[in-house]
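Let us practice reading a record.
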Amino acid sequence: MKPDEKVLATAGPHPISSFGGTFADVCAHEESEHAMSDLVRYEYAAGVARIVLARPDRANAIDLSTAHALGKAVKRAAHPDVRAVVVRGESARFCAGGDLAAMAAVPDRAAYVQELATTLDGVFQELAALPKPVVAAVEGSVAGAGLALMLSCDVIVAAASTRFVLAYTGVGLTPNCGVSYLLPRAIGQQRALDLALTGRRLTAAEALSWVLVTEVVDDASVGVRADGLAQQLAAGASYALGQGELLLRSRELTREQVGRAEARVIAQAISRPETAALIESFTGRGAARA
């Protein structure tokens, strides 16, 4: 049994109705994973995994070690027993992007930054490709690569006091980790250029009006709202939800390719037991109304 399967097997008999604490009572972390949990916590309960950036002293900025730890957490979340995922940062901060102090401390900055950007880009692509809903709970500051992490999620719940900034121009760097691909597709090219060239900071209300986030809630509610959404999604038809979000992300396919993919996926979906039960329930209600 693999480590992630041990965690899930341990968690199985202990349903938890809401997140709270660190789930020490249901998560059996392997000794070799302690270093990972110092940087990125992985928690699981009742079909929902939570991935938490745990460097609050660095505003949850990501160095190379954190990037690798995040990658391991995303791989664990790919387990079929995980039906939805929440991504957030510890201590009311989501992610300040790449760790500039770590970049400045190495002798070969170019090699370090290239490896960090390449590693993170791969992790974010894996996160976006998970065939299950991923909810981001964002608060504090979301900057640089933190925006790419956020936009790799499917649903984005933002605290009202959150601020969003690309931040690259202020330190003489350029967009990376896929943000130059993701941001224009989320808010349009002109608004993405505005953020990139001016370095302006968006409020949560502005981010909502620009459709950069899904919804804005008061600061005290962001975690509860994100967890509640994840639990709601985990209770749904997970295959249909996961495949649906992947289809909606398939913008680079041609119209013909998307049509073929949709036909293939719906044929697979209708063959699943959970779908059969939902259809039977729906048609039964229709017959009852008739």
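A brief commentary: Confidence is low (pLDDT under 50) at residues 1-35, 286-290.
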